[in-house]
Amino acid sequence: LRLVAVLRAVLEGEKAAVLKREHHLPLSFHRRQEELKFSVGLQRLQHRVREIQALRDGPAGEGRAGAGAAPQELPTLILEAVKELEAVKQQVLKRIQIWKRQQQLAGNGAVFEENLAPLQKRCEDLVEIYFQLQQQVMAASAELGPELLPRLLERFSEVLSSLVKR
């Protein structure tokens, strides 16, 4: 823990020195930070999907207080996963908006990176998780009940339509 504290202090000092010299952090730092936030959100979503599948597929009494625990846990877990899916979608949409703005500024002579591969990869990764989560929701439709399932399906369609439209 001391080593971590020392390294953190050194990095804080370097960050302060860069800020003092540049008066702001370089753009590459912000882009890297954004990429890390996205990858962490995506990993969290993948973990949620695996948790949902394990909860659905696992034996009824194993590792739980009783067989009745699963029906209460599953909807909560699915709602959390959908909330995280929407948050990651917002990150992708924000990145798309930034790309569009940079494209507009390029018409005025600003530097513009035309490489769409990272943005396309983000969208593909998000849609892959989207379909995995939607499959889990459809497989668990009996446990979710008639009130929750239509709301979840509506949220899913909103996520996909907003990605496609942007």
- What proportion of the residues form beta strands (DSSP E)? under 5%
Low-confidence stretches: 61-69
CATH superfamily: STAT transcription factor, all-alpha domain
Order of helices and strands: HHHHH
Q: What is the SS-derived class?
A: mainly alpha
Specify the helix fraction band: over 70%
What attributes characterize this protein structure?
166 residues, Glutathione S-transferase Yfyf (Class Pi), Chain A, domain 2, SH2 domain, DNA-binding transcription factor activity, STAT_TF_alpha, STAT6 protein, STAT
Give an account of the 3D structure.
With 166 residues, the protein is mostly helical. It has a single domain (27-57, 73-165), classed as STAT transcription factor, all-alpha domain (Glutathione S-transferase Yfyf (Class Pi), Chain A, domain 2), CATH 1.20.1050.20. The protein is 83% helix and 0% strand. The protein contains 5 helices and no strands. It has helices at 2-22, 27-57, 69-106, 117-139, 141-165. The radius of gyration is 21 Å and the shape is flat. It starts with a helix and ends with a helix. Residues 61-69 have low confidence and may be disordered.
